[in-house]
Amino acid sequence: MEIKVIGLGGVGSTLVRTLARYLNFSGGGARLTLVDGDSYEPKNQARQVFGDFGNKAAVSANELAQSFPALSVRAVKDFVAAENVERIIEQGDVVFLAVDNHATRKLVSDHCARLGDVTLISGGNEFTDGNIQVFINREGQWLTPPLTYLHPEIEFPEDRNPAEGSCQELAESAPQLIFTNLAVASAMLEAFYALEQGKLTYSECYLDILSGAKRPVLRKEVG
Fold it and tell me: N or C end of the chain, less CB within 10 A?
């Protein structure tokens, strides 16, 4: 199984450690690829899980390879962009998308819609609420809708892909809470496990950590 984790920030850096532990001891022979062009810095320590400073994909891949020797781990030290998306996401991949901008979500969703066989699990959050989406494409048939369906903020993004942004834009982001990051990461992993077990019954799930609400929704638009 080829698994790609794109974005190693508050959600991704938490998700990948639990995912790696599960894959290492499940005996499934998966290969895990981490993708991020950003770097861990002192300011990230309040929300992101890492043991050293430097490129997020490289640092996380090195730490996971040491902790889980049965797991094949590699790093792609780039942001996903139009120039490399075809090389990074390929047929048969399971993709965890944990980025903080709609431009990248649209880019990845559109690419996955063109492939014949791919699973995309995307998650994001505001300060105390968030959502995940699951896009399943099998032999060119969309079993669940792409990320853009009923989400005009993704279909028509007003932000920019970080590969195109300035240093100032990359440094600016809305405040986030580590507890919400954890909740979104957990919801993404829950969807992955439900799909593995053939029991996934939803394509989106909305959550709010203040109320404890969790609302799964099944979208039925298909391609």
Answer: C
